[in-house]
Amino acid sequence: MKNSWDKLIQGIREKDIRAMARLITRVENREDGWKTAMTEIYPLTGKARVFGITGSPGAGKSTLTCEIARELADRGHTVGIIAVDPSSPFSGGALLGDRLRMQQIFTIKEIYIRSMATRGMLGGLCQAARDVIRIMDAFGKDVILIETVGVGQDEIEIVKTADRVMVVCIPGMGDGIQAIKAGVMEIADLYVINKADKPGADEVEADIQAMLSLSSDLECVAPPVLQTSALKKQGILELVSALLENPADTKKQKVKEEIRIKEEILSLMEREVFRQVRSVWENEGSLLDSVSQVMQKTSDPYTIVKQMLLNHKHR
Amino acid sequence: MNQKRKIRVLVAKPGLDGHERGAHVVAYGLRDAGFEVIYTGLRQTTEQIVNAAIQEDVDVIGLSILSGAHVSLTRKVLDELKNQKAEDIMVIVGGIVPSEDIRDLKEMGVREVFTAGTPISAISDFIESAIPAD
Amino acid sequence: MAEDNKYLEKIKTQQKEWEENVLQKRVKRFNLKESPTKFYSPLSTIKNDFCEKVGFPGQYPYTSGNNPFDFWRAYAGDAAKMGYRPDWGGAGGVGKYGGFGTAEDYRDYLIRMHSMGRTGGPNMAFDLVTQCGYDSDSPFADGEVGRVGVAIDTFRDFATIYEPYTGALEIDKVPSNFTINAPAAIIIAMYAVLADKRGVPLNKLKGTPQNDILKEFIARGTYIFPPKPSLRLFRDTCVFCTQLMPELNINSMGGYHIREAGASRVQDLAFSMANAAAYLQTGIDGGLAVDLFAPKFTFNAFGGSMEIYPEIAFQRAARRIYARMLKERFHAKNPRSMLIRQPITAHIGCSSTTLQRPLNNLTRAVVGGMAAGMSGGMPGAFPPFDEPMGLGHSQEAVQLQLDATRILIYEAKVSDVNDPWAGSYFMESLTDEIEEQTIAEMEKIENMGGAVAAIENGYMQKAIAKSSYQKQRKIDKQEEFVIGVNCYTGQNEINVNVNREVEASYDPELMKSAEKRQKEKLSRLKRERDNTTVHSLLSTLRQHAKDEAVNLMPDICKCVENDVSLQEICDVFREVFGEFQQAKL
Ligand SMILES: Nc1nc2c(ncn2[C@@H]2O[C@H](COP(=O)(O)OP(=O)(O)OP(=O)(O)O)[C@@H](O)[C@H]2O)c(=O)[nH]1
Ligand SMILES: [Mg+2]
Question: pTM to 2 decimals?
Answer without folding.
Answer: 0.93
